[in-house]
């Protein structure tokens, strides 16, 4: 079984998305690949575990890349 977490987070730059990111960091949740997604925030940046990620368009995202 593959235990690697590939996380897609819709609304990553919003209030709820930022709270989820805070909780992931607080619990030291191990994420293999992180896909922050949005609509109006495409191109903005968010951070998770001291790494910066660019928000991609939720409508163009290939959901098969994520398992959560």
UniProtKB/TrEMBL annotation:
Sample GO molecular function, one term:
NAD binding
- Top-rank taxon, per record: Bacteria
Matching InterPro entries, A to Z? NAD(P)-bd_dom_sf, Semialdehyde_DH_NAD-bd
Q: Sorted alphabetically, which Pfam families does this protein's record hold?
A: Semialdhyde_dh
Positions of the Semialdehyde dehydrogenase NAD-binding domain: 7-63
Q: What is this protein called?
A: Aspartate-semialdehyde dehydrogenase
Q: Which organism is it from?
A: SAR86 cluster bacterium
